[in-house]
């Protein structure tokens, strides 16, 4: 019973603690909303979560419930996860509050892809492509383009089945696979391609309307015009009607997107019926070819609107009567009229425009027939009498080429007909099983449409005469749509079917493009596009639709379907190229998260698809390809410099990791050659009590030295333990990063926590860098008040010198760092003086060269001073030094300074004595309490060794230990001089060490020469003397450095790392 009571009390306490934690979590949840993710059960409150956990044997993990969800709740959230973006539901679904029905492979992927792939090019340009490029050439074009889209579909299927793809389709896949920079650049290209596709569909719609349905509706009349005037009238009609239709379509999209989606199946039915009518017509030609006569004058094709009978004269009764064709080429209707020379010399013949599939016309259409602009359409194999010197007249009576045709032009015009393969992936949010439907539906749609296109090439070449195929606007067949002449039961099936299909495709483009732009804008990767992420209350992208309509209008102002098609080909090809690149990268990098359900892919196929896309881009139009790449590159660099930083686990970051690993492994193979040596700098920064940087100018100098483009590590030390002082370390790291950003220092920050600064600095020097990419130079500032500083500070500075020497690292010590220039200052004149006393690798010569690469020091001149001893030939030294600098390619003034031995002055003797006395006093005073206790403990164990009967040292209190060797007087304990008066007497009677006297003498002599020559220099670089090998004299080292640099404004003490860093060889 007692046990039960205790257990119950414990359970109650645990429940209370949980409820308190849950209440706190609710407050936090209200303050900051959670990200919508399948791994965060945002629909369940924290109280409900805690209630779920109670009584479920999860007490062992109760402390982790806030951050680690239970497996059951995780699986439940994954099952209920929806990838529909906000505002993506249609209007009627939002009004009825009903869940949208999920679509399968047929309705969700296959049919939308079919509708987007089959369209305006098939109906308006396919026959002309076959006539100009020939069956073989056009088949090669179709095969290349279809192969490109098939390979892209395979890559896209792999990406789409590698996890959940939210609504956003291709942009989402590319951006999450290649990063925000590539994603934004390619997303904008895909958006522009979709927008120009809308312009192309609208132009196709207007072309069908004005040429084949109601030619009389033309505002700018083309009758009686020829050449450039007729072409200008046609283009102006396209511009006016295109703008009207675009405005109407934009209004429809703005008012009711639901109607566009409902009419999509109607438009698709028109496309399918039109294709079936063409196949039915082909079959009918095998036994009953349609009667479509084409009239030829010699071998030239005549415009059918200029006559009613294909003959020069006809017999009426017993008289010979001239026809309209006679009157078109002659000056009167009489037989004795003066006629066109070509008309007189050649006969008029009539041929069958569609001889049928069994006629054998395929052999004639097998090869290409490219034409120059304004050249007359002629039939092969028909004789004609032509005077080569005669000028062509009556050109408006002949069917003429409107553009110059060539192979690459045909590629650019045809490729838009195979785009639209991403219609299924763009609907991924509406599919029941996107990972199954997207690959199957897309590949089936491409297979079906590829069969339709390839069979069309062969069937058109086998059924239709070449002059009819090359007649782009059907001028020789009574203005009929050429593909319509082949259709059964009537050409109007094709005319109206193609008209409605182009209208539907244009509406779909104006619906999809603004949503794509809205998705890019909401990702906030392109700052100036953020306004287009907003829309109406239901999520409709109003501003994006307005921009889309404006860009689409530029395509309509071009007014030529053949000129707009290559533009959108560029943007689509670039998008497809990066889809293939994304798949290839993920496969080659073997990213752990790369586990597509679609298994029929390979990196070689993706690379082949990428190569095909790049090839087709330059085949279509090399200058459009360059423009598209420049646009994408500009967007890439803009996002890189100005866009928001996003971490999407992209493949480019994976490439960086792989390249970095490879490079690091290569660096491990051996030290770099002298020609490749560059300063890899470890900057040791000092921090104040608030963890702010004390000497920011040290980073300014680092930035100015980075012409070497080497590694930079900015290090700082925090005293304490890692568990207790981690917040201070994070604050210090933020201070370093902020200052690095201000000073534009590219590198890494590193903060080390240790019990004392000396050990922390040692850790930085030893462990900085990674593998072969390690620092070879340490940059530190000279202690300003080292004479008054505590022992830890002065020792810290001294041990940097000792440890860098032991590690064979170069050392740069800046004196008076606060006087150094910032990155914003400029020296318009002055000198950088180099005092070359000893050669320790050449770093002293390299540093001024690197500094002069920076704009701060660029106008300063370099002067190199070297010291000649008594036995040296100063003239020869100067010549040798100038030759050496010439081979090093350094421009500098040279001066040799002669220093003669002189007697040591009394001042030097006295200064050395004062230095040694001060060092002795500091030695006595720096005996800390811990050291005294260790000394007492040592004496105690020596005098009273541990034995079975003797008490252990632990039994004695610290106060008793101190009393064994030190007096109880506080003054004697704290003042060693009082405790030992004899030491003071000896201190004032001591004589200075002769070695120290000599060092002090040389330091003063050299300082006097340097001050005399370089007092006005902007910077003085000087060999830094090494620490004494005998550590007994190390306490005077800082004094020698102080004497050496006294009286100089800016000094950079340089100590080489023991290896050559410059060479005279190439």
TrEMBL record:
Membrane topology, record value: Multi-pass membrane protein
UniProt GO BP: cell volume homeostasis; chemical synaptic transmission; chloride ion homeostasis; potassium ion homeostasis; potassium ion import across plasma membrane
Main localization (coarse): membrane
Keyword rRNA-binding recorded: no
Catalytic activity reported: K(+)(in) + chloride(in) = K(+)(out) + chloride(out)
Domain SLC12A transporter C-terminal residue range list: 696-810, 827-1066
Single GO MF descriptor: potassium:chloride symporter activity
TM region positions: 199-220, 240-257, 263-282, 403-423, 443-464, 567-588, 600-625
Subcellular location(s) per record: Cell membrane
Family named by the database record: Belongs to the SLC12A transporter family. K/Cl co-transporter subfamily.
Name of this chain's protein: Solute carrier family 12 member 5b
């Amino acid at each position: 019973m007692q046990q039960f009571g205790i257990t119950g009390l414990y359970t109650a306490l645990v429940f209370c603690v949980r409820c308190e934690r849950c209440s706190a979590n609710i407050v936090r949840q209200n303050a900051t909303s959670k990200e919508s993710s399948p791994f965060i059960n945002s629909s369940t409150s924290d109280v409900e979560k805690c209630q779920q956990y109670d009584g479920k044997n999860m007490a062992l993990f109760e402390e982790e419930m806030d951050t680690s969800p239970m497996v059951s709740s995780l699986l439940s959230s994954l099952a209920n996860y929806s990838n529909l973006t906000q505002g993506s539901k249609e209007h009627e679904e939002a009004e009825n509050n009903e869940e949208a029905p999920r679509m399968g492979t047929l309705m969700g992927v296959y049919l939308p892809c079919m509708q987007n792939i089959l369209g305006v090019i098939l109906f308006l340009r396919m026959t002309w492509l076959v006539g100009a490029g020939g069956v073989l050439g056009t088949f090669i074009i179709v095969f290349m383009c279809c192969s490109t889209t098939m390979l892209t579909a395979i890559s896209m299927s792999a990406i789409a089945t590698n996890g959940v793809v939210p609504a956003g389709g291709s942009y989402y896949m590319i951006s999450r696979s290649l990063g925000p920079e590539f994603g934004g650049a390619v997303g904008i290209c895909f958006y522009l391609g979709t927008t120009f596709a809308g312009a192309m569909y609208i132009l196709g719609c207007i072309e069908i309307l004005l040429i084949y349905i109601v030619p009389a509706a033309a505002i700018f009349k083309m009758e009686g015009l020829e050449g450039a005037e007729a072409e200008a009238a046609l283009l102006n009609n396209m511009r006016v009607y295109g703008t009207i239709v675009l405005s109407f379509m934009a209004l429809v999209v703005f008012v009711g997107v639901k109607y566009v989606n409902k009419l999509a199946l109607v438009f698709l039915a028109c496309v399918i019926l039109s294709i079936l009518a063409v196949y039915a017509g082909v079959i009918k030609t095998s036994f009953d070819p349609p009667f479509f006569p084409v009239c030829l004058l010699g071998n030239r094709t005549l415009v059918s609107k200029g006559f009613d009978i294909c003959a020069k004269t006809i017999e009426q009764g017993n008289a010979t009567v001239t026809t309209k064709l006679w009157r078109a080429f002659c000056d009167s209707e009489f037989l004795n009229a003066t006629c066109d020379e070509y008309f007189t010399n050649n006969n008029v013949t009539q041929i069958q425009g569609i001889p049928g599939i069994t006629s054998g016309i395929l052999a004639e259409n097998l090869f290409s027939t490219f034409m120059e602009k304004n050249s007359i359409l002629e039939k092969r194999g028909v004789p004609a009498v032509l005077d080569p010197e005669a000028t062509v007249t009556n050109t408006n009576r002949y069917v003429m080429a409107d553009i110059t045709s060539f192979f690459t032009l045909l590629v650019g015009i045809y490729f838009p007909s195979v785009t639209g393969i991403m219609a299924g992936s763009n609907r991924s949010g509406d599919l029941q099983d996107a990972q199954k439907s997207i690959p199957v539906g897309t590949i089936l749609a491409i297979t079906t449409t590829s069969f339709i296109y390839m069979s069309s090439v062969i069937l058109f070449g086998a059924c239709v005469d070449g002059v009819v195929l090359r007649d782009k606007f059907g001028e020789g067949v009574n203005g009929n749509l050429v593909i319509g002449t082949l259709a059964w039961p009537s050409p109007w099936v094709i005319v109206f079917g193609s008209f409605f299909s182009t209208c539907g495709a244009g509406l779909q483009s104006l619906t999809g493009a603004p949503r794509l732009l809205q998705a890019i804008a909401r990702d906030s990767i392109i700052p100036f596009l953020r306004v287009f992420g907003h829309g109406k209350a239901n999520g409709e992208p109003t501003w994006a639709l307005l921009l889309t309509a404006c860009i689409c209008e530029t395509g309509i102002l071009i007014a030529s379907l053949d000129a707009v098609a290559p533009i959108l080909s560029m943007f689509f090809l670039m998008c497809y190229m990066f889809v293939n690149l994304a798949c290839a990268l993920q496969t080659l990098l073997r990213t752990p998260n790369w586990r597509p359900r679609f298994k029929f892919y390979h990196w070689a196929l993706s690379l082949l698809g990428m190569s095909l896309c790049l090839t087709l881009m330059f085949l279509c139009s090399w200058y459009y390809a360059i423009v598209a790449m420049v646009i994408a590159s500009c967007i890439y660099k803009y996002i890189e410099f100005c866009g928001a930083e996003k971490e999407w686990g992209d493949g480019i970051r994976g490439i960086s990791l792989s390249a970095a690993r490879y490079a690091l492994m290569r660096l491990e193979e051996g030290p770099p050659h002298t020609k490749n040596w560059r300063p890899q700098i470890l900057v040791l920064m000092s921090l104040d009590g608030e963890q702010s940087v004390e000497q920011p100018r040290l980073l300014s100098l680092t930035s100015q030295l980075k012409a070497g483009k080497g590694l930079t590590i900015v290090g700082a030390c925090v005293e304490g333990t890692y568990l207790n002082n981690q917040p201070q370390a994070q604050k210090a790291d933020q201070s370093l990063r902020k200052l690095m950003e201000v000073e534009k220092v590219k590198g890494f920050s590193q903060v080390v926590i240790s019990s004392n600064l000396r050990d922390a600095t040692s850790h930085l020097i030893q462990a900085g860098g990674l593998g072969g990419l390690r620092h070879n130079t340490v940059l530190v500032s000279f202690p300003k008040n080292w004479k008054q500083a505590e022992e830890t500070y002065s020792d810290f500075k001294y041990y940097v010198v000792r440890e860098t020497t032991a590690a064979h690292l170069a050392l740069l010590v800046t004196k008076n760092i606060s006087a150094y220039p910032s990155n914003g200052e400029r020296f318009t004149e002055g000198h950088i003086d180099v005092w070359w006393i000893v050669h320790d690798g050449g770093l002293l010569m390299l540093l001024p060269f690197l500094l002069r690469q920076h704009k701060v020091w660029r106008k300063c001149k370099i002067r190199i001073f070297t010291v000649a001893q008594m036995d040296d030939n100063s003239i020869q030294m100067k010549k040798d030094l100038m030759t050496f600098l010439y081979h090093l390619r350094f421009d500098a003034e040279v001066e040799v300074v002669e220093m003669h031995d002189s007697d040591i002055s009394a001042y030097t003797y006295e200064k050395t004595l004062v230095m040694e006395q001060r060092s002795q006093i500091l030695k006595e005073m720096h005996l800390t309490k811990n050291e005294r206790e260790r000394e007492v403990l040592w004496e105690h164990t020596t005098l009273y060794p541990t034995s079975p009967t003797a008490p252990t040292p632990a039994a004695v209190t610290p106060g008793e230990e101190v009393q064994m060797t030190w007096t109880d007087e506080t003054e004697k304990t704290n003042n060693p001089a009082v405790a030992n008066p004899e030491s003071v007497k000896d201190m004032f009677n001591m004589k200075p060490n002769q070695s120290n006297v000599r060092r002090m003498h040389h330091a003063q002599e050299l300082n006097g020469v340097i001050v005399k020559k370089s007092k006005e220099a902007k910077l003085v670089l000087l060999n830094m003397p090494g620490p004494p090998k005998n550590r007994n004299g190390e306490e005077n080292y800082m004094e020698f450095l102080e004497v050496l640099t006294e009286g100089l404004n800016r000094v950079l003490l340089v100590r080489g790392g023991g290896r050559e860093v410059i060479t005279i060889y190439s």
